[in-house]
# Entry
Amino acid sequence: MADDTLTWMNELTAEMEERRKRVMRGGGEERIKKQHDAGKLTARERLEALLDKGSFVELGVFVEHLGVELMRGIDAPGEGVVTGYGTIKGRTVFVFSQDFTVLGGSLGKMHGQKIARVMDLAVKTGAPIIGLNDSAGARIQEGVDALSGYGEVFYRNALYSGVVPQISAILGPCAGGAVYSPALTDFVLMSRGTSYMFITGPEVIKSVTKEEVSFEALGGAEVHHRKSGVAHFEADGDQAVLELIRELLSYLPQSAKEKPPHKPTQDPDVRETPELNSIVHPDQRRPYPMLEVIRAIVDDKHFLEVQPEFAKNILCSFARLGGQPVGIVANNPRHLAGTINIDAADKAARFIRTCDCFNIPIVTLVDVTGFMPGVAQEHAGIIRHGAKMLYAYAEATVPKITLITRKSYGGAYLAMNSRDMGADVVLAWPTAAVAVMGAEGAASIIYRREIHNSPKPAAAKAAKIEEYKKRFDNPYWAAERGYIDDVIDPQDTRRQLIKHLRMLGHKTEARPFRKHDNIPL
Ligand code: HXC
# Structure
């Protein structure tokens, strides 16, 4: 009897292994070779590279498609997506990895449900969800069932937004629905040369608008990283993108209920930054490298810039100060004189909100003359977009520290998190100047009559500009009124920021009841 049971069990486990092998093979040798020849890893190889060695645990292994209508008789091992969980640097993450070798990674109803299930588990257990996307979009054979599969994923992307971090890697030609799920997540990373994102591909575009465009020019990593702002990061190939995800995750908490992990550093809190004493030039129009200011003050001079090639007039970076992850927002005087235009406002607002929902304190470095003037900007809605930035800072309840390095004028003074917009601590270098506008513009407006009536208008104007500069072009007018907490020596910046961050470590800030906010979009 015992032998019979054993034989029976051996047969069952052999069948189980056979079924498992079929799933592991994905779309088969030929398609896997095609995937490798294209410079891409397979869905399973990607998970191995992303997760800590041997940590992956698969879920939904034997899920199959519905097998109705046009899908009858079609073989789709694993339903074209590998799902489960594992660890990254010891922390649990939930993952899905689409298998392009199975029907082009296209998403059918059950494929969508596999993804939805790991998303649900991620939220129930409080862990990030990472999607490795390589998909031709909705599975055409499944019709509305495929659309419904996407609906299940999109719905959860929105529902779980701000609950757990959601990270999307784009590692192949992602079309249609395959781009909207990533667009609903917190971060989009693309592999250079092997990934594309578009709603409709070159062929459809040609038939509708007669435009001829290549995959790369339509939706390659460069386009989305520099022009459209859809992607936050790009890297060379799958391995580099997966490595970047591991680094990105190190700045994020497991969920909105937790704080991001501290990382001990040998870099002393009190390290002086003498290089910052000579970075701002006495000529206010001379740009200087704000990235070097960031580099000088952060732990180990290391930071991770988000959207580095998009809207370069504003810089958004993750870094650490005294081991504490922070988000740094900074004007970049080297690009468009650091003015805030539509793209910069969108970029910063999104970053500020991302930091806020994941309990990452925000450090703002200010050198800004204002919002970017111009008919094109006005007509494209700079008011609507600029409002997002004001809104994002005001609604953020994480610790917020502002440091004014040089100019802080007009509406941009407020958009860069002034005291009144909710900054907990405002510091300034002695080079700072806070005013409604620059001395030249201000003097010509308020002293127009005196200048006009003067026998020597040019000299009168120069004198008035000087007079205005003396009064307003310094940090003290604002500091006297309590808008600035302290004027600090630039070489003391790192120590000061860390000290204030520690003080704010247990900050809580309540907001009045509402169903949800209504940010201008
Ligand atoms: C089912 C698909 C498919 C799809 C491709 N395949 N797209 N199967 N549904 N949407 C299959 C192919 O038949 C092929 O099967 C395999 O996947 C690989 O496709 P290839 O074309 O050989 O690969 P490649 O040359 O690399 O081109 C990849 C591609 C192209 C650019 C993604 O396949 C393509 O343009 N596909 C259609 C994209 C699309 O329009 N999707 C629908 C979007 S609408 P075999 O058996 O030969 O390996 C959508 C609606 C949701 O998503 C919207 C929600 C907002």
Summary: The CA atoms of residues 119 and 230 lie 22 Å apart. The pocket of hexanoyl-coenzyme A is lined by residues 31, 103-104, 106, 136-141, 147, 150, 173, 175-177, 180, 201 (CB under 6 Å). Residues 439-472 form one domain. The chain is about 40% helix and 15% strand.
